[in-house]
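Journal club prep — side note

Before the paper discussion, L.F. wants everyone to see what a predicted structure for a comparable chain looks like in C-alpha cell form. Sequence:
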Amino acid sequence: MTARSAGSRAARGPAGDAADTAGPHYEWVVLSNTTLGVLIATINASIMLIALPDIFRGVGIDPLQPGNTSLLLWLITGYLVVTAVLVVSFGRMGDMYGRVRMYNAGFAVFTVFSVLLSVTWMHGTAGALWLILMRVGQGVGGAMLMANSNAIITDAFPADRRGLALGLNQVAGIAGSFMGLVLGGLLAPVEWRMVFLLSVPIGVFGTFWSYRKLHDTGIRRPARLDWWGNLTFAVGLVAVLAGITYGIQPYRGHTMGWTNPWVLTALIGGVLMLVIFGIVETRVAEPMFRMSLFRIRAFTAGNLASLLSGIGRGGLMFILIIWLQGIWLPRHGYGFTETPLWAGIYMLPLTVGFLVAGPISGWLSDRFGARPFATGGMLVAAGSFVLLALLPVDFHYGTFAAILLLNGVGMGLFASPNRAGIMNSLPADQRGVGGGMSTTFQNSALVLSIGVFFSLIVLGLAGTLPHALSSGLVAQGVPAGDAERLSALPPVSVLFASLLGYNPVQTLLGPNVLDQLPASHAAYLTGRGFFPALISGPFAKGLEAAFIFAIAACLVAAVASWLRGGKYVHTDKPTTVGTTDYSCPALRGPETAHHGSATPDPAAVPVGSHGLASGIAHPTPPTAGPGTARAGPPGPHEDRPHPTGDSALDTYALIVTAHGYRPATYSMMTGNGRTAAADHAPRTNGQIAGVVRAASPDRPLPGAVVRAVDATGRVVARATTGHDGRFRLTGLPGHPYAVTRAPGPTTPPDGHGPADAGLHLTVDGLPS
C-alpha cells in the first residue's frame, strides 16, 4: 500500500508503514497534516496584503511612486500566479510518483524559501526583486502542497466521510486567506521579517510530521511527463495573468493599461497558447490536463462553480480592505497607520461564517450529496452581496458584521460540498491531476478577481474623483497648480493608498506645500476626515458596479452547481468473482486482470462476524449469483441511482500474497445501499480490516500484501500487514458485506510456494 521514501523511513519497511495506515487514527493524521499544509499556504497568499506598508518601509521603497507600482502588484500576485500555474503539473506528478512524496517535498520547499524571505539584506529595488523571486519559490512549495492535499485525503477517507474531511480542509484553506490579514497586521508593525518567519517553525514541523506519518495509499500510474503540455500551459496562463496584472496599471494618459500593446499581446497570446495547449492535450498519450475528465458532469459543473465563486470571494476581500482602511476606519477615529490591523480584525465575522458552515455542510453532503448545499450556499452569498450593495458607505458596524457573517456562511456552505463533489467524481488514479485542475481554477479566480474588481472600482473613481479632489484641495488653500497635479493622479494610486493604509494627501503634497498653508487647514487635509470623505462618493459608484458583478457571478455559480446532478461517487466497473480457475488472469497474480466470473461459494461469512478462517462456513449465508454484478457505472452525464435489492452488491477478487507462501484468493462483496440481506450487513464505511496468518505453523504474518482487484485487473485497494499481521483496506467502493473463500484448490499452475505454505485470512467487523 505504501511507496517508501528514502532513509530511515525505508528502513521501517512495509510492516511499519502498514501499522501506521491500519491504525484507527490514520485518517485524522492525514486530515490534520494536510489541513496544516493548506492553511499555511493560504495564509501566506494573503498575509502580505496587510503587511506591505511595513515591508516596503523595511526595504526602503515608496510603493506609491509610479515606477514602483509593478513591484507592489507582483509582490501581491506573484505567489498566486505561480500556484495557479503549477498545481496541475504537481498533481500529475503526484499521480505518477506518489502524492505523499510530492506533498513532503512541498513542505520542505515552502520552508526553505520562507527562511530566504526572512533574511533579506538588500534595500531599494534590489530588495523588492529579491522578495518577489523568493515569493515565487515559496509559491512552488505552496503549489506542491495544494496540488496533492485533496488527493491524499480522498485516498485515505471512504466516500461516505470524504465530504466532512475535504470540507474541513477546504474551509481551513479559505479561512487562512482571511486569517493572513490579521496575522500580517499583528506581526508586521513589530518586525516585518516576522511575516515570513511565522511559516518556518510550522514548515519544519509539518515537513518532519508528514515524512514520518503519511504514506501513499492511492494508486500510482507510471507515465511519461507531458513536457509540451506543461510548457504551453505555463506560458499561456502566465501570459494571461501577467496581462491582467499590468492591465490595471495606468498607461500613458489612460487610467488603466488595457490599451497597452504589451497587455493586449499578453492577453491575446496567452489565450492562443492555452488553445494550443488544449489541442496538444488531445494528441499526447499521457496528457497533463485530462480533458476527458470534463466529460464527467459533476467535475465540470463543480469547477465552473468554483471559478465563479472564487472571483466573487477574491474581489470581496480587496473591496472590504479598501472600504475599511481607506474610508470607514479613519472616519471612526483610527489613524491611517492602525487601519491595516483593524481591517483584518473587523473582517473576522466572515471567517467565523466559513468555520461554522463549512464542516457542517461537508458532513451533510456525505449523506445527501453536494448539489443542495453548494447551490444554496451560492444563493446565500448572492443575497449577502445584495445587502452589502444596499449599505451606505458610512455603515453601522453591527449590520456590516451580520452581513459578513451571512456571506461567510454562504461561502462555507458552498466550498466544502463542492470540493467533495469534485474529488468524488474522479477516478482513483486521476485524483492528483484532477485536484490540481480544480485548484488551478480556484487560484486563477483570485488573480482574475483582482483585475475585474480593481477595473470596476477604478472606472467608478475615474469619473468623479479628479474634480472632487481638485475642488476640495483648492477650498483648503492649496495652490491651483498643486491641486491640479494631485487630481491628475491615476485612480489606481488612490486605491493602492487605501489598500496600504497610507494618507496619500500628506504623502503626495509633501512638506513644502503643507508648510505654506494655515495650520488648521494643513491639519484637516492630513487628518482622518478629508481624504475618506473625499473618496466616499466616487468609491460608492465603483462599489455598486463591483457588487453587481459579484451577485451575477454567484448566481451563475449557483446554476452551474445545480447542473452537477445528484450524488455521484466514481466507481470502476465491478464483476462477480470467486473462481479458482487460474485461466482467469486476476488469479494468476495481483496485478493482472480478472475477466472470469462464477457463482461465489455459498459459504459466505458476513464481515460483521467474529472472524473468517479458511474454509469456515456461516450457518445462514447470503446467496449471490451472476446477477449480483452490476452492469456498469453510470455514464459521465448520469447520476448513480439509489441502489436497492441484490443489484447493490459488487464483488471483487481479494488476493493475499506473501513471499514464500502460495497466494490465497477470496471473493469480497460490497453493498452500496439497502441490500436484500441488509439486516446482516454492518456499516463499515468502505473499509475492511483483519489479520493474515500463516497456516503452518499458525502465526500472524507481517509483510503480507492484501489486494482488492476489480474486473479490469485494477487494484482498487491495497494494504500491507503490520508486525501483528493486521491490515486495513480503505477507500473500497461501498460497504464490505461478505468475504468468501474461493472454492477448490488454491495452488496456481506454476506451483508457487510449497504445498504446506498456505495463508488464511481473518476479517473483523468494523464499528459504524
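L.F.'s comment for the group: Residues 698 and 759 are 9 Å apart (CA to CA). Keep this in mind when we get to the figures.
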